[in-house]
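Troubleshooting: if your tokenizer reports a length mismatch, compare your output against this known-good record of 407 residues.
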Amino acid sequence: MSFLIPADSGGLLKRRPFALFLLSRSFSRFSSQIAAVAIGWQVYELTGSAFDLGMVGLVQFLPTALLMFVAGHAADRYERKRVVQLCQIGEALTALFLAWGAYAGWLTVLQIFIATAVLGTAGAFESPATAALLPLIAPQGTLQRATAISSGAAQLATITGPALGGLAYAVAPAMPYAMMVLFWLSGAVLTGVIQLARSAAVRDASTPADLFAGVRFVRNNAAILGTISLDLFAVLLGGATALLPIYARDILRTGPLGLGILRAAPAVGALLMTAVLARHTISRRIGLRMFQAVIVFGVATVIFAISHLMWLSVLALLILGAADTVSVVIRFSLVQLATPDEMRGRVGAVNFLFINASNQLGQFESGVTAALMGAMPAAVLGGVGTIAIALLWMKLFPTLRDVERLE
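Known-good structure output:
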């Protein structure tokens, strides 16, 4: 395929549309990570209720579940960068409301929940539109590198965003929300000036059945169905990171500082692997490499589960994060390249729902299992289950296993 444009990661970063996209997405990610800390802390400070704290996640997830089909259709029907831009403006206005209420002292838990639901709604529309936008920005032949770099930026935000939000909240409760306003508005400006390398496919007049076209497409495409469902079940079972507070206090006995190190370890491993993938793309046996990465993820989960040594636990989490990044980059690239441009928004919405469901339900599954049988058996069971799912999916989806190349 000699017509594909060769480009290394440095060349990608020098391309103005990709650089603008990366900055815009990073600003959104930073804001989301800051919001997770600030909103959670303020709700718990106002109520002292673990149930109310748990409700924050549910309120964020429900809009994704309810609006999946509409959000995906919007990403395919309207100009994607405008959809992303409008979502960022809406998020900035919501953050401004929270900043004003926190500064004036009249913000209530109900108002925080309503604002959280608005942020969840905006995120439900923003995510599939952003995912569908990347293939139009990255030159042909560079999507895997572009995905790796974008994933690395997201991991950097995951590492530093919560610390930034916690530090800002310690100064003043309104400060993290004010930072979110600045970041989201900056992202909206950057998104607005992106010039696409390729135009999106022309969309015909829509019908009500088009809302569910993404589900039908995923169901009828074995490789995409296998990819998305593998992510759902692997993360659902392998959610040992939800048990980190228990491990830090009761098993490793490291305290809050140790918990912070454990929480950062998967993101650090992911960031290191991103640097590798940005320079050295996976060029052969793509499908098999994805399954191998999921199996390594499961093995690392088991090692973490049975470890009583801090250094071994951190190493296992580093490997876990690195393996997950390999799987994420391959999955995202495979789904985007196997999906026609006019369907990418709706398929991306289905994928986003599965990812959110696996993360949220995975935390719930780990917590319930740990309550029933203890943290260590629950984490071991999750790791073994992840390995079993990968092996089973290799048998159920041979076309996915045999995928040789991405581009």
